[in-house]
Structures are given as structure tokens and as C-alpha cells.
Amino acid sequence: MHEARPRAEFDAFAPDYDGGMGDPLKRLFGGTADVFLEHKADWLRRNLAPAGRLLDFGCGAAGFLRALRQSGAPLELVGCDVSEGMLAEARERWDAGPPPSLHAVPPGPLPFADAEFDVVTATCVLHHVAPAERPAVARELLRVVRPGGAVAVFEHNPWNPLTRWLVGRAAIDANAQLLSAAECTRLLSGAGAGACRSRYILFFPPRLRRLWAAERALAWLPIGGQYVTVGIKPS
Length: 235
Known about the structure:
This protein has 235 residues and is an alpha/beta fold. It has a single domain, classed as Vaccinia Virus protein VP39 (Rossmann fold), CATH 3.40.50.150. It contains 9 helices and 7 strands; from the N terminus they run H-H-H-E-H-E-H-E-E-H-E-H-H-E-H-E. Strand 4, helix 6 and strand 5 form a beta-alpha-beta unit. The chain is globular and about 40 Å long. 42% of the residues are buried.
């Protein structure tokens, strides 16, 4: 795994990490970070029906892994992150049954075997990785997923002006460089993925979550607050 910022800089955000929801404007739109993660877990469950072993790359405080466990998906959960502080926070906060296997990983190749996982996710991680280092990260994500398995990347949509504005206010995103769905598709395709597709999500804030069902009809429209790009490793 490569990193765009020093590991200690991520560690500084670990205590009481809230996904940036300390910002009063983010709270106005969303309430808690958990709601956004639950939305992503629900999308993954409905669209990929994941089963088997799942690796969450850059898992941070394991909020997405917790949301996946609570979704009821039949998964063996594994997480990795460059920040040992975030992983310590994850272990302290975990309250969703048997804890996932969490690994601190240095920059470079991931410490996992080829084709070890059925699904690999990266949830709002790549915008923290320097653009020049993203192809190597994408190759690692494809390497550790099995043939026929999926790599799912959730990211902020730079074409959404509210997203750009909120990211610009977040201290943890001070050095972030957003990437579009088209760029994410090129990354995964260049790493060897086939059948890449992108869908847009979070057209409505969690306070209007009753409208989230309508997102399924809007998923092609590139103005959602975030997107998910899925690449399938060729068999």
C-alpha cells in the first residue's frame, strides 16, 4: 500500500474519529458518519451480494466493516490500514460480534496472497493516495482478489459542487486529490479488471433518506455526492 501522507498524520485523527462529522455543516446534512457507511454497505449487499472473504483496504476505524457485519452479509471480514492508531481505535470501538482481522500494512505490496479474497473494497481511500501511486495500489487490489471476484471503490464525486466544498473544509482531506469515476475506471482497467462499471450514490442527504430508494433510477447521473466503481477480475 502506498500513502500520500505520513502515517503519523492519520494517527492524529484516530482518537474520537468521526469521519469529519464534527463539521456542523456535515452534521446538518448527515447526522453521523455511520449512516453514510450503512448506505454503502446496503448498496454493496443489494448489487454484489457479497459472500466469502472481504478485504476493506484502508479500513480506518473499521466503520464500513461494522456496517457490513450489521447488514447481515455472509462475510469473513478483514481490514488493513497504514495507520496503527486508526486500527487501535477500530479494536476499541468494535461492538458488532466477532471482530474482523485487522492488519497494519506499510507502503508497498499488501501482505496477502494472490487471489486470497472474494471481494475487495476501498471506501473513500484513493483520494488520499498520490495520483502517481494509484496504479500500483489498484494492481495490488486486483492481485489479492480471486478470479471472478470484485473490487469495489467508493469515492467522492468531484463533479458534485457540494462534495467538493465539504471536502475542502475537512482537516483530514487537506491534501486530498479527488478522482472522477472515469479516472477510477481507467485505474481498475489498467490494473487488469474487466467489466468495470460506475454508479452514482448519495443524491440526497441522510436527513432525506426516505428518498434513497429513488437513487436506483438516478444511478447513471453523474451528480451524486459519491460514486462506486466496480471492476471484476477476469476468470
